[in-house]
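Our preliminary data section would be incomplete without showing what the modeling component actually yields. Below, a chain of 177 amino acids is followed by its predicted structure, encoded as tokens that our downstream tools consume directly.
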Amino acid sequence: MVVVLTGLLVAGATSGAQAQQPISVGQQTANPSGWTFDIAPYLWLPSLHTTLNYNLPPALNGRLPTDVSVQPADILTHLNFAMAVAADAQYGPFSLLTDFMCLNLSDTTAHIKSIDFVGLPAQPISRSVQASTGTRLSSTLWTLAGRYTVIQGDWGNFDVIAAFRYLGVNATTDLTL
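Predicted structure:
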């Protein structure tokens, strides 16, 4: 991904690409010759609410459901690294589009709900006996798409798009009772 983004930046800088201007109503779009590039870093502060289900060691044969919650105002205090960028490259009717988001948080507040042993009822764990809990969470979301404009007219475009999306999440929770 870094190679693709670096390539888009270098190609945009060397091709003399210019920012696209809004098109006024009734104004025809000019079909630029050669490559055009757009890149847009952006900021996104989501609220995060998730339940993680950790498997206990095989000898215990169960799971450990954990609630993790972070509000947008708290994300910056737990943030280790974040990046969000969208980019596209276009040449005639062909386009390549990408959107990449990466987030790494540490020491977020977590609550172990219970210990669930297979074949036995869940054993709830009270918040009062949890001396400290902390979750480290990293996630990556990457979308890459190719587009071809089949038909173009005053009414709009008919495009064919092929894409894939990758989601990777890694979480670790530390617990002291």
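The beta strands are 35-41, 48-55, 62-70, 79-91, 94-108, 110-112, 114-117, 123-124, 132-153, 156-176. Helices lie at 2-14, 72-78. Preliminary results of this kind motivate Aim 1 of the renewal.
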